[in-house]
Write a structure and sequence with these properties.
By secondary structure, the protein is of the alpha+beta class. The chain is built from two helices and 13 strands; from the N terminus they run ββββββαββββββαβ. The chain has two domains: 72 residues, Outer Surface Protein A, domain 3, CATH 3.90.930; 82 residues, Ribosomal protein L6 (Outer Surface Protein A, domain 3), CATH 3.90.930.
Length: 180
């Protein structure tokens, strides 16, 4: 039995679950999310919890069991508390700023890079070097954070670039002297 898939998902107050066939819509204080799942995986919605069950132990159902439960849990968490990814900018002259709802990055190019947030995502800049990507869809928050990071990935010699908070960049030594 899947260790993740067998755990029930608690439904907090203020969250409404609408299940029609294999389509689930979760509505909460921060918004609503929808997803369609494999109709052969059972999703049982009770008054206070959601339980995901699989029909048998075939490998395809075992793989989808835990994934279905994890996606449902992320949907419930997203509409109640939301998700955030924090990015840090390191480098001389590298900085971020907000221009309306758009994120403007100065990361070593001859021009500023303007990043428009997709629907459901917002940016926040705490100081000039910390960016927060906020939203209710965990997958979309992670993808947008990866897209922002891809504008200037951290390089291994000086460590300059955009990195996730707490990310360790493996540093290289650089050129050594001549042969001895």
């Amino acid at each position: 039995m899947s260790r993740i898939g067998r755990l029930p998902i608690a439904i907090p107050g203020g969250v409404k679950i609408d299940k029609t066939g294999a389509h689930v819509k979760v509505t909460g204080p921060k918004g609503s999310l929808e997803a369609s799942f494999d109709p052969r995986i059972g999703i049982n919605v009770a008054a206070s919890e959601i339980v995901v069950v699989r029909p048998n132990d075939r490998p395809e159902f075992r793989a989808k069991h835990g994934m279905t439960r994890a996606i449902l849990n992320n949907m419930v968490t997203g509409v109640t508390t939301g998700f955030e990814r924090v990015l840090e900018i390191q480098g001389v002259g590298y900085r971020a700023a907000m221009q309306g709802s758009n994120l403007t990055l100065q990361v070593g190019y001859s021009h500023p890079v303007v990043v428009e947030p997709p629907t459901g995502i917002s940016f926040a800049v705490d100081n000039l070097t910390t960016i927060k990507v906020l939203g209710i869809d965990k997958c979309l928050v992670g993808q947008v954070a990866a897209d922002v990071r891809s504008w200037r990935k951290p390089e291994p010699y000086k460590g300059k670039g955009i990195r996730y908070k707490g990310e360790q960049v493996r540093r290289k030594e650089g050129k050594s002297g001549g042969k001895k």
